[in-house]
Amino acid sequence: MMDILLAHMEDIAQKAVKTGVAASKFLTPAEAQAVAERFAHNRAELSFDGGAASAERVRAVFLNPDWGSYNRAELLTALKIECREPLTHRDILGALMALGLERNTIGDIIDHAAMFVCLPELSGYIAENLTKIGRAGVTVSEISLDMLPEKSEDLAIKTDTVASLRLDAVLSAAFGTSRAKAAELIASGRVNLNHQPCVQPAKELSEGALLSVRGHGRAKLLEVGGTSKKGRIFLQIGLYGK
Hints:
The protein has six helices and 14 strands. It has 242 residues and is an alpha+beta fold.
């Protein structure tokens, strides 16, 4: 699937060289990382935009530098839902999918603010047809991209020490499991490192590394500190709320 995506991105990049700017639909974090690695050096400049700086789902934007810049409003539209009932991410996403939309046409959904980002060509259709979520009546209106709130990371901070910065060691510390169990999770393909599958237990991590383990949750390596008298490395790890 990733090969198909990258081949499609190649077409988009070539289109940008000819027309000035071209963009993908919304990418997942793993897809965006793969695109960033593949097109690090390309005639058309690559950037990512999902509305807010902290957006997880983003559009890959290829720009021919000879053409100048692009208008963000032509690539992204932010919408706000007015509803008397509190809405969850699942409520909003389910209602949008019920309209027959594909997931890659919708960017981030900020449930606590009842806002989301979509492809501009779909905003009118959504505003006209999204009139109910569950049993609650709703109205949808366009807002400025500047009104999108930045996502705050809900992290529980944990400190620990490890013998090394190997993936299996940090994983063991993050999720309170044995080194052997961590290695087993890695070997089973259940571990993602920076949104990509990783089956290398000896992979060295650095600050900012994102870990996710199916069935266990997500964590972020926030800080690598000094070493103890026994030579163990101090870590500060953030655990994401479920």
